[in-house]
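Aim 2, interim progress: modelling of the oxa(dethia)-CoA-bound target.
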Amino acid sequence: MTVYSRIAGTGSYLPAQRVTNDDLAQKVETSDEWIATRTGIRARHFAAEGELSSDLALKAVEAAIASAGIAREEIDLLIVATTTPDHTFPSTATVLQNKLGVYGFPAFDIQAVCAGFIYALTIADQFIRSGTAKCAVVVGAETFSHILNWQDRTTCVLFGDGAGAVVLKASEEPGILASKLHADGRYKDILNVPGRIKNGAIDGDPWVYMDGGAVFKFAVRALSDVAVETLALAGMEKSQVDWLVPHQANIRIIESTAKHLHLSMDKVIVTVDQHGNTSAASIPLALDEGIRSGRIQRGQTLMLEGIGGGFTWGAALIKY
Ligand code: UT7
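Predicted structure of the complex, ligand included:
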């Protein structure tokens, strides 16, 4: 019997504070026109003072558990994808496990920046397919606002905070059909936070740095290629994809990926306009939005894909 990982439920959470482009233009030399035209972003949410990635993750997981109709005691694996962990250690996953109040099963973080959720989902899928786990919770959670430099208008207008989660259960029905991950460390310097904690102080720059043009070029090619690769692994055609659920960084990158998949934009879940780039949280946030809005239906085929610093990228083809 083939065992698949099936999405049993999804959930997401956005912190209360919503900040529009016009709000940002009060403190940064920018405009709604510049941000919206270049990126498609109109608003993003920012965590409150003291609100951490594990707090956002907890709300998203609670919603996912409710939608899956499972008891928290059924969870036997917890993976958190985050670029903005609560601490250097312990992992945000163990902090979250404690907040969930269920213990003993493996819990760990994955760091693959904006590709983190695809990495975490693929790892959870391997645990389930091998019989090591039966009910995994996979989360993408970010407080990216903590690493934004308000003196750098080329990056600070692009990102937001939030969390999204899925409950994956072992099932005879498909499921995750195929996934493919990549990394290329030669590109580590075009998108990063170069600083580190050393001897009680920050050594180097603690803010996000991005060469936007280089990232854009890399992303368009890599995302198109990995979608094709993942379809081939599943033995499926572009025409069989019902929904593209991409990482939400820039509407122009999303449009280009959709075009390569021969999908019209009404077959793409877009949240970048309202969420900005929430890094590892963006794909599960978009997935939950697509499902809760009633657009994504059971039995449909979804292409999830993301790309982030490292560089890291990947895709997952899913029968919902
Ligand atoms: O999640 C990881 C994936 N990340 C991404 O996918 C991001 C990919 N890159 C991008 O989305 C785009 O490269 C950006 C949106 C970041 C930048 O767009 P661009 O069309 O490449 O603009 P640019 O960097 O070439 O800047 C054009 C101009 C510059 O002015 P000059 O030198 O032409 O006078 C910038 O100084 O826009 C200026 N500028 C701004 N103006 C108003 C840069 N940031 C801003 C701003 N507001 N926030």
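The chain has ten helices and 15 strands. The two ends are 20 Å apart (CA to CA).
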